[in-house]
Amino acid sequence: MSDFLFPFFSHGLVPLPWWGHVLIALALTHVTIVSVTVFLHRHQAHRALELHPVVSHFFRFWLWLTTGMVTSEWVAIHRKHHASCETEADPHSPAVVGIDTVLWRGAELYRAASKDRALVAKYRHGTPDDWLERKLYAAHPATGIAVMAVIDVLLFGALGLSIWAVQMLWIPFFAAGVINGLGHWWGYRNFESQDRSTNISPLGLLIGGEELHNNHHAFPSSAKLSARWWEFDIGWFYIRTMEVLRLARVKKVSRRPQTVAGKRTVDLDTVRAVVLNPLHVMAHYARAVVLPVLREEFRSVDASRRSIIRQARWLLVRETSLMDDSAAQRLQRLLDMNERLKLVYQFRQQLQVVWSRRAESQEQLRQSLHDWCQRAEATGVQALEDFARRLRSYSVQAV
């Protein structure tokens, strides 16, 4: 009997070489990542898409096996994060508790928040509440993890325990730690949202597209997380594939403002396009105005002034509410040193003021935007003049 059981326990029902076990572990964890980003995040938390009931239930079942997370708890904690981002009420903010705590103890923060029944009750609306959820998935989350351990050992023998361990650690580290931690601490930003969210990588492969965290915070209800042509969101690839197979339906995707060729007048259509897309407008301003002028000024000044520009260049497009006193002082030093940079920065601030006056009538907003464009076109700064002309052509209509 022992002669029979030993090779079985060593190799399981599916004998594989070492690299086969590695591929299996990566494949299984990838399914879990897809379940989190497509089902929990984009479908359940933000209602950005609808899923076929069979697909939806598969994701619930798989997450029960591989994470033990309860849908209502995950959704509630995530919605709370957006509602109180980077404040004391945020369940997992590195700005509050520190990057080390979120990165290495993110799962502990999640478990602590999940025990707050008032939080879960307030933010769980719309999550599954059927018999299976009440009697199995939510009632016995640890059972799924145990079942997964048995399955891994049966299939892959002793090495199945290693595969199971990787499965159990993948989400706590990459989702609870990396996304919630590094995603608010390190990386690049396409959009100056009023939080510290960053894109960790332009290639959303390892964590299903969640690497594009700044894009998500800029447009939380969008089913697509990539925003630039060179960014790739594999979660979106799976969603589009399921949509073709009629297993999903996309409800919301972020849209950038359209332009109408030959349009030279600031009208109410222009106002709506700008007011509905402020983050896109400001991102375009940064690329089309601030950066070209910055490069020109950098080439024209001496070494001492170049050092000042290097230290403060990204502050020219930074959300002002995120600057500390030291950053504000570096920015002011740069603006005092260079009149052209000061000019384009002032126009950036004035443009933000235009759509902050939403209480005004549409005609007042139109006039304010028209005046801004006229003044920008009279500055003598070519990049600013070109931007103002393009702004006039903005439209909410598809062209």
What does this structure look like?
The chain has 399 residues and is mostly helical. It has two domains: 2-250, no CATH class; 259-395, no CATH class. Helix content is 64%, strand content 4%. The protein contains 19 helices and six strands. It has helices spanning 2-11, 18-45, 53-66, 71-83, 94-97, 99-114, 117-123, 131-137, 141-156, 159-181, 213-218, 234-244, 268-276, 278-300, 303-312, 325-337, 339-356, 362-377, 382-392; strands at residues 49-51, 203-204, 232-233, 248-250, 258-259, 394-395. The strands form three sheets. A two-stranded antiparallel sheet has the order 1-4. A two-stranded parallel ribbon has the order 2-3. Helix 11 links the parallel strand 2 (203-204) and strand 3 (232-233). The longest helix is centred in the first third of the chain and has 28 residues, at 18-45. The chain is elongated and about 75 Å long. Mean pLDDT is 93; it is low at 1-6.
